[in-house]
């Protein structure tokens, strides 16, 4: 899955690159459009065959793009995609740390409120 994600990012960067030919951009757009489109030759909700045609179209699109995009441009786009992925991982990990901190602080607050209520109930009952 990581390799597919990295390739998708590579082709996204290549799609915006000025040295990529227009016909390669058209193939990338049509491949992504077919995979994401709700209207397909074989619907995706059919258990095996529906996903198999998506994978087949995706693989053919990737092979065509690798042949159409110049090698130096593709290498440059891969490097940019890896850099962007590393930056996103840093952002994701810092975001995860913030979410964990907020969750722990919320639990601590709820525990403090519950403990305070228990003490108040105990003191009022005696």
Structure in a nutshell:
With 126 residues, the protein is mostly helical. Helix content is 83%, strand content 0%.
Write the layout of secondary structure elements.
Elements: H1 2-16, H2 22-36, H3 49-68, H4 71-125
Notes on the protein architecture:
This protein is mainly α. The protein has one domain. It is built from four helices and no strands. Helix 1 packs across helix 2, helix 1 crosses helix 4 and helix 2 packs antiparallel against helix 3. The radius of gyration is 25 Å and the shape is elongated. The relative contact order is 0.11.
Which class best fits the helix and strand makeup? mainly alpha
Question: What is the terminal-to-terminal distance?
Answer: 62 Å
Taken as a percent bin, the fraction of beta residues is: under 5%
pLDDT averaged residue by residue: 84
Low-confidence stretches: none
- Overall tally of domains: 1
Instruction: State the share of residues found in helices, binned by percent.
Output: over 70%
Radius of gyration: 25 Å
Attribute tags:
126 residues; mainly alpha; elongated
